[in-house]
Design goal:
mainly alpha, about 110 residues, about 0% strand, homohexamer
C-alpha cells in the first residue's frame, strides 16, 4: 500500500476511536448512521458510493473524497467511472473544485499503485 | 401537470432563453456542458441524475433539486430510490438540509400528481 | 399568532409528516437525533438553542433560523440575547448573512406580536 | 421603477432600519464597514462593485446579487460588463449558480425597464 | 505546551501582525470587531465561545475551530461541554464535518497535554 | 523564486497534466473555459483577476487564492490593490475567511521575495 494511503487510513481510524471514546451519544449515532446509509438498499452500493464521492467533492472535503475513492475502488468501480462521476461534480461545483480534484486524482493513482 | 410544476418549468425555460440571449460565450458553453455531462457514458443516466440530485441537495439549491427530481422521475427512478438518494445527501449535508428536503418531497409529490 | 408564523409552523409540520411517511429509516433517525441533540445535557437548553440559531445563520438557512428563533423565545431568551448571538454569527459569516438577518429580525418581531 | 425593484428596495431599507433599531453595536459597525469598503480607494468603485456582485453570486445570495446589480447600473457599468463578470462567477461557482443567475438577469432587465 | 499548539499560536500571531502591517483600514476594523464581539455582554463569555466554536465547525474552518477550542479551555469549559457543543454542530453540518471533528478532538487533546 | 511558490506551481502543473491525461471530455472543457474566461473582454484582465481572487477568497479555496495572487502580481497589480480587494472579500465572507487571508498574505509576500 502507498505510504500516503496507509497514513490516511491510520489517522482516520485512530481519530475515529478517540471521537467515540468521548462517549457522546449523538456522535456515536451519527457514526452509526454513516455505516448504515451506504449499505445495499433500493440503490446498490456502487451508486451510493458514487453519491458519497460526488457530494464530498462538491462540498470540497478532501478527506471525505479520499475515503469514498477508496471505497469506490474496493467495490470495483473503474477509474473511468470514478472520473466521470467527479467530472459531473466539478461542473456542478465549479472551478473552485479543481484543487480538490487534483488531490483526488493523486490519491486515486496512489491507490492504484 | 400540477400548476407549481408548470410554473417552475416555464420560469426556468424563459430565463434560460434570456440568459443565452445575452450572447455571453462562457455562459453558452457552461449551458452546453451541462447537457453533455448528464448523457449516457461510462455511468448510466440513472446514476448521473442521482448524482445531480444529491449534489444539488447537499449544496442546498432548491431549483436544482427540483430539476433533477423531474429528470429522475422522467427516466423511471422510483420514489423509494429517489428518497434513498436524498437520505444519503441529508446525512452528508446535515440537518441544515431538511428545509430543502421538505420542498423536494413536496415537489416530488406534485410531480406524481 | 402572526399569520406568517402560523403559516411557517403549519408547512413545517405538514412536510415533516410527509417526509416521515416515506418510511426511510435514515431520515427517521436523523429526525430523531435532531430532537435528542437539543435536550438538556452538559450544556443547558438556552446555550444549545443559541448554538442552533447561530449555526443556522452562518449556514444561511432561513427556515432553520426561524425555527430556532421560535425555540429561543419559547424558552425565555430575550430579544437582546438573541440579537447578540446573531451579531456574532453575522461577524463570523460576513455581510453575506445580512439578508438572512433581515428575515430573522422580521420573524422575531412577528413572534413578539 | 419596476414594481419588483421598488419592493426589493423598500423591504431592504425597512429591515435595515429595524436591525439598527436593535441597537447592537457589532451590527452597527458591520453596516458601517459595508459602506466604507465600497468607497473609492486604491481600487475604483466599478471594480469594487463587480467584486461585490461576483462574490455575492458565487456565495449564491440573491438579495446581495440584486443590490450590487443595482449599484453596478447606477455607476454606469453596461449590461455586457455585468454579464461578463457574472459569467466568471458562474464558472468559478459552477452550475449550482445558474438558478441565481436566472434571478439576477431577471432583476437586471427589470432595472433596465 | 504541545509543540503543535505552540506552532499554531505562533503562526497565527505572526500572520496577524503581517496582515495589520498592510495598514488596510477595513481589515483593522474587522480584527477589532472580532475582539469586541466575544467580550461579556447580554450573553456570557462561555456561551459566546461555544457559538464561535460551533459556527466555525459547521463552516468547516480548522484554524477557527482550533482557536475557539483554545479559548473554551482557557475560560474553563470542560471537555464534555465542548464535545457536546461540537456534536450539535456535527448534526447540523452533517457527516462532511467529521474530518474537521477529528482534527478538533486531536487539538483538544493536545491542549490537555 | 521562493521554494514554496515553486512547489505550489510544480504540483499544480503536474496534477493538471494528470487530470487531462484521464481524457475526460467534460474536465477538458472546464479547463478550457477557465483559460478563456480570464482573457481580456468587456472587462480588462486586472478586473477579471481581482474577481477571480476575491471569489476564491470568499469560497475559501487556498490554492485558488494563491493562483490568482500570482496572476495579479504578474499583470502588475500592486500589493495595496490586492489587499484592498481581499479586504472586501473578508468583509463579505466574514471572519471565517481570516485564516485563508493569513495564508494569502504569506504567499503574496513570498512572491514579492
Amino acid at each position: 500500500m502507498h505510504p500516503k494511503v496507509e497514513e490516511f487510513n491510520a489517522y482516520r481510524s485512530e481519530m475515529n476511536t478517540r471521537i467515540l471514546a468521548t462517549d457522546n451519544l449523538i456522535l456515536k449515532r451519527i457514526f452509526n448512521l454513516d455505516t448504515n446509509a451506504f449499505a445495499e438498499g433500493a440503490l446498490d452500493v456502487k451508486t451510493k458510493e458514487l453519491i458519497g464521492l460526488t457530494c464530498s467533492l462538491v462540498l470540497r472535503c478532501d478527506d471525505c473524497v479520499k475515503y469514498h475513492i477508496g471505497k469506490c475502488k474496493e467495490i470495483g468501480l473503474s477509474k473511468t467511472e470514478i472520473v466521470e462521476g467527479m467530472a459531473i461534480a466539478n461542473l456542478i461545483g465549479g472551478t473552485i473544485v479543481i484543487p480538490h480534484l487534483r488531490r483526488a486524482i493523486e490519491f486515486l493513482e496512489q491507490l492504484e499503485g
